[in-house]
Amino acid sequence: MSSRKVRLEEVESLPIISYxxxxxxxxxxxxxxxxxGLLPNIVLEVETIEAxxxxxxxxxxxxxxxxxxxxxELRRKKLGTLVITDAxxxxxxxDVIVPRRHPLSRNGGSLLGELREATRxxxxxxxxxxx
Length: 131
Known about the structure:
CATH architecture of the domain at 4-90: 3-Layer(aba) Sandwich
Order of helices and strands: EHEHEHHEH
CATH class of the domain at 4-90: Alpha Beta
Largest sheet: 2 strands, parallel
CATH topology of the domain at 4-90: D-Maltodextrin-Binding Protein, domain 2
CATH superfamily of the domain at 4-90: Periplasmic binding protein-like II
Strand order of the largest sheet: 1-4
Structural class: alpha/beta
Radius of gyration: 17 Å
Helix content: 25-40%
Mean pLDDT: 86
Low-confidence stretches: none
Distance between the termini: 19 Å
Number of helices: 5
Strand content: 5-15%
Number of strands: 4
């Protein structure tokens, strides 16, 4: 799947799957619609991002999910993106906390590198070795 351009008004009528009501992600998404004077068509609410992703993969609707949560699915083209042309971009910060006096393990350093790569604004997923 590739990116498709839509207007926020078009998204308003599409079935939306929401997760974790009251979370900062939920508030951010609903605020986007509210500021535009629109009401999202939430057809299903689930508790976790993973459950939300599974519902989207089953074609029950679309969802606003953190890019890092769908990185692999986008890379494997199991999911696609909608580019909303007339709305401000939704952005969140990601804080990684590491112990000050203990160096990260090799795996921890690798994970931190992957997180940095996946959250770069100009990020294009790279093929991974062995896949």
